[in-house]
Input
Amino acid sequence: MEMFLMIMCMSVFSLAVTALAFGAATRPEKKEEVVPVEAKPVLAASEAQFFVAPPPQVRPVVVPIPVEALLLQIERHIRLEHAAAESFVEDPTAALLHSRTSSPLVH
Output
């Protein structure tokens, strides 16, 4: 019986909090009197200088790499990984399993 009363009280309390939040969210806003302020002259787009000059466009220099050079690097990487796998199969140790590769291509 006590648990039922506790659940009922908590439900009524949460319903009241929800109703208050809903009432505050849907209440019309009070309109305050707007005091006129002296009008400031608006600058034209040509007069306004937020940025004086645009930053210079810097384009990175792209050096084309021949496809053959990339293929040679990939083949070397595959040979090194294959040799590492063969040495591990011949003599499996924890040091060989966790050692870093000597290939410059790291995954």
In short: Helices lie at 2-26, 67-90, 94-97. The chain has a mean pLDDT of 80.
